[in-house]
Amino acid sequence: MSVFRIAHISDLHCGSPHVVPSLMERRIVATNDLEPDVVVSSRDLTELGFRQEYARVIESAESDETVDAVLDLVVAEAELARTAV
Hints:
This protein is mainly α. It is built from 3 helices and 2 strands. It has one domain. The chain has helices at 21-33, 51-63, 68-83, and strands spanning 6-10, 38-42. Strands 1-2 form a two-stranded parallel ribbon.
């Protein structure tokens, strides 16, 4: 039987003054070390939902070896934020 691994991360709050970059890096490394087939991110991706926060999330995701599904989710959420009134 093959194993399908799902990593679930939530409440990243990128952009928050309380987020410690080195701890975020450790979270990314730990998630990647699990070798998930897909990563699901839920809840608060950014702190306040500002465009520049989403831009930082996208930049971070593109610079790391993250699962494509996470980047797709980030881009989709960023697009929603750009079009929101």
